[in-house]
Amino acid sequence: MARLILEENKNKSRTCKVLWNANIEFEIGEEEYRHIVNLTDRVCSCRTWQLRGIPCQHVVSALCHIGQELEPLVEHWYKKDTLLKAYSHFIQLITNIKMWPETNNPRIERPEPKPMSGRPARNKRKGKDEPRKKYGKMSKQGVKQTCSKCKLESHNKRYCKVTG
Fold first, then answer.
1. In the prediction, which pLDDT does 164 show?
2. More exposed terminus of the chain, fewer Cβ within 10 Å: N or C?
């Protein structure tokens, strides 16, 4: 993974320009941004090198400018030797919860639920497995409207054109 990121940073470094050199510090121009690289403190102003431990494109362009190798500046935890040291020991399995010894310490209970802030919900939300209400409002599908003013069907008194 570290090698892939380093190769990607090599490709990105082609667009960077080394603008200023003071032996250990460089000013790297990348489009409209300027980044300061300090090789002795292992610091870049974009902070990617400090966060990842892999030289960013600004550090790569500075190192290419002075002709120095990139691999020594990659942090040690990405190296194969560190990985092998970390996994060289056998990891013991954890016993089942039934085999744990009993303690005299007080049992940890879950906390009481706190009421939520804001106005409470008006109606209870039904779960997926709860039955829907079978009584209540009936649908008006199939019912014909009759106007109370003109006694004609297909409209009501609100939309009636008859004056009076």
1. 54
2. C
Residue 87 CA to its chain's centroid (Å): 29
Cα-to-chain-centroid distance, residue 22: 39
* Spatial CB neighbours of 45, under 8 Å, sequence gap ≥ 6: 35, 36, 37, 58
Vertex 25: Cα angle to 22 and 30 (nearest 5): 110
Instruction: Report the distance separating Cα 66 and Cα 24, nearest Å.
Output: 10
Please report the pLDDT score of residue 72 as a whole number: 86
How far is Cα 52 from Cα 75, in angstroms, rounded to an integer? Answer: 9
Residue 110 confidence (pLDDT): 92
Residue 89 tokens, joined: 């020991």
Residues of the chain with pLDDT under 70: 21-23, 133-136, 163-164
Task: Please report the pLDDT score of residue 112 as a whole number.
Answer: 92
Q: Is 68 strand, coil or helix?
A: coil
- The whole-model pTM stands at 0.52
**In the structure encoding, which two tokens stand for residue 53, read together?**
């431990």
Cα(18)–Cα(79) distance, integer angstroms: 29
Helices assigned H by DSSP within the chain: 2-12, 48-52, 57-66, 80-86
